[in-house]
Specification:
Elements: H1 4-22, H2 38-41, H3 49-67, H4 72-91, H5 94-99, H6 105-108, H7 110-133, H8 139-164, H9 166-172
């Protein structure tokens, strides 16, 4: 069993960071970081899919309650949690995923982690922002929001991964 306390702390930390810091952060009309997805990105690779989905559901519902977004976060987070195992298998390889571990920079490498986290955050943003807008006339605006928010979200997920997997990096050096 992975260190459950560590993941509970990551869950609470990403939830609170999103609700009280990133939601209040004004980076322009196109940038809205969705850093709470870092929790789903950093879950253990061998975690049963049902637990990943339940974790995504809990995170999405709590984000919707905190942000007042009536299901937007739940839809995006559940879809991202659902696709996670296929994305991991595609990027890292099914054999490596079955060995387990944390999908961190030290364990799967910088390039693979960047691809994995990039696809996960892009999926989150690509589902969240069109549902938030719900207006086909704002296609370019929504596309710019997806791209800008994806880039900044990926940067913050990378930084959270560096902090969260710090002990793994230090022990391999």
């Amino acid at each position: 069993m992975y260190d459950a306390l560590k993941y509970i702390l990551l869950f609470v930390l990403t939830l609170l960071l999103q609700l009280f810091f990133f939601n209040a952060l004004q980076l322009g009309p196109y940038v809205t970081p969705l850093v709470y997805i870092a929790f789903i990105v950093l879950l253990p690779m061998k975690m049963p899919p049902l637990y990943v989905l339940l974790s995504g559901l809990l995170m999405g519902v709590l984000m919707d309650i905190g942000m007042g977004t009536a299901g937007l976060n739940t839809i995006a987070t559940l879809l991202t949690a659902y696709a996670r195992i296929w994305i991991l298998n595609l990027i890292v390889g099914k054999e490596y995923v079955s060995e387990g571990g944390i999908p961190g920079i030290a364990s799967i490498g910088r390039k693979k982690f960047l691809r994995y986290a990039g696809i996960m955050t892009l999926l989150q943003c690509a589902v969240f922002f069109p549902f938030e807008t719900m207006n086909g006339n704002l296609f370019l605006h929504t596309l710019l929001r997806i791209i800008a928010s994806w880039a900044i979200t990926l940067l913050f997920v990378w930084l959270i991964a560096l902090v969260f997997t710090h002990n793994n990096i230090r022990s391999q050096n």
